[in-house]
Specification:
Largest sheet: 4 strands, antiparallel
Order of helices and strands: HEEHEE
Radius of gyration: 22 Å
Structural class: alpha+beta
Number of strands: 4
């Protein structure tokens, strides 16, 4: 009779334990995704500053989540607005040793004010996290 009581307790608490483990895993994934975005943005900034001597960073933006709005996935988005006397092709040439410019997930765009925006969007380490839904 005693083993039946223990089995009943396990049956009652097992779903609760599994739900707590799942929630902890999702929170851990969110933390790691945000950390990856922060690292990507800081690396992008360091690469820009090391390759462009007259750079003036105007704004730094990063986002972790489903940035495209399609599908259930998490992206790491980094975008930096900066000004320099260099031309877009020269900037791409210098930054091409760090990034592959494909026009979709990594590109440089000239703004109306004469500044440039570099945009990098990569998959997050925990791409199937609840944050992307």
């Amino acid at each position: 009779m005693k083993w039946l009581k223990r089995l009943g307790i396990v049956i009652v608490f097992l779903p609760i334990v599994l739900i707590v483990i799942w929630i902890a895993y999702e929170i851990f994934g969110m933390f790691m995704n945000h950390m990856a975005t922060r690292k990507q943005t800081n690396t992008l900034r360091m690469n820009l500053e090391s390759e462009i001597s007259d750079i003036e960073i105007i704004d730094v933006y990063s986002e972790t989540g489903n940035t495209s709005g399609t599908g259930n996935h998490v992206d790491c988005l980094s975008s930096i607005i900066f000004s320099t006397e260099m031309q877009e092709t020269e900037i791409e040439g210098r930054m091409s040793k760090y990034y592959v410019f494909d026009g979709w997930s990594c590109y440089i765009d000239k703004t109306d004010e004469g500044c440039y925006t570099i945009y990098i969007n990569t998959p997050a380490p925990f791409a199937d996290n609840i944050e992307g839904h």
